[in-house]
Amino acid sequence: MEQGVIAWLSGRTAETTAPASAQPAPRRIFFSRRELDRILSLYGRMVAAGEWRDYAMADGVEVAVFAVHRRSSEQPLYRIEKRPALAKRQGAFAVIAAGGRILKRGHDLDAVLAVLERKLLKLVDGE
After folding, report:
1. pLDDT of the residue at 6
2. Mapping DSSP to helix (H, G, I), strand (E, B) and coil, where does residue 85 land?
3. What is d(CA 64, CA 77) in angstroms, rounded to the nearest whole number?
4. pLDDT value at position 1?
5. Which residues pair with 67 in a beta bridge?
6. What is the DSSP letter of 103?
7. Superkingdom, according to UniProt (predicted)?
8. What's the average pLDDT block by block, 10 residues per block, for the chain (127 residues)?
C-alpha cells in the first residue's frame, strides 16, 4: 500500500508522517502594532518638520528594520532595528545612524526613540 493510504488507515495525518529532516520555516521578526504606531508617529512629525521624506521597512529572521531617508535615492539617515535575540542583554531596540554608529540601544522603544525626539525638538526650537 502507499504511504498516504497507510497513514489514513492508521489515523495519522500528513503532518505526523512528514520526514523527520523537514524543518519548519524560521520565524520572521516584525514590529508589533504598538511599536509601529510609535515609530510612524515620530516619522510623521519629522516629515512635517521637513527632515524626513521617505521610509522603508524590512523583516528578517534576526531583525526587523525601519529605515528613514531624506530622499528615496539616498542611503537611510537612520535605521530603527528590533533584534529580539538581544532583548535580555543590550535591549531589543536600537537607533543606528547612516555611518553604522549606534546612537541608542535599549529595552524600551520610547526611550530609544528619544534620541531622535531630541533632534525634532532642536528643529522646532531653532525656528
Report:
1. 45
2. helix
3. 16
4. 44
5. 56, 79
6. E
7. Bacteria
8. 46 53 80 95 92 91 93 86 90 93 94 86 58
